[in-house]
Amino acid sequence: MHGPVTSGWLLMALCAMTGAYCLLRTRGETGERRRTARAEALMGFGMAAMAVPAAVVTPPAWAWAVYAVLFGAASLRALWFSRRSGHHLHHLVGSSAMVYMALTMAPGGGGAAGHGGHTGHGMAATAGGVPLLTGLLLAYYAAYVLRSGARLIPVAAAAGDAGGGPAGGGGGWAARPELALACRMTMGIAMFAMLLTV
User: Fold this and answer.
1) Integer CA distances (angstroms), 81 to 29, 35, 68, 90, in order
2) What predicted TM-score, i.e. pTM, was given to this entire model?
């Protein structure tokens, strides 16, 4: 990613903390919820790795291929599980966006050949359709964040009205639905910010 180093580190820390929380959620969940938490943890850690400022650490050229393969596999997994849950369609979009960013940021990938493969400056000059794809992904994540934020307000109010304290419904803080929704919204904001750099 290009831009100020401080914002890159903050984005990296935010994504890493979100991934860690999602990983903690896998311990208290089963079945579909556990699969969802695992997918979200992978996305959080992958975004954190991509958000490391290039001015500090320039990833090796092969790292982008690893990201593309890893998130390509995650896309196929999300496609498979989307038969059961519509939320996996969101994971499919997210994983596909990560593949897109990895291919774009790779040296010679159309965006950043002269900048260590980590900036995405030249996207407007690449073959047709890429600016449109970036715009569509930005619009998707903007809508997703707004929708998640709107859903977060009633969930937080309902949890506060329950009178159950911080651990409200049993299962502790790791199982609170409003925290999971806040993590999803946070990752949506982070993805929007990363796509702006493409």
Assistant:
1) 17, 9, 20, 11
2) 0.76
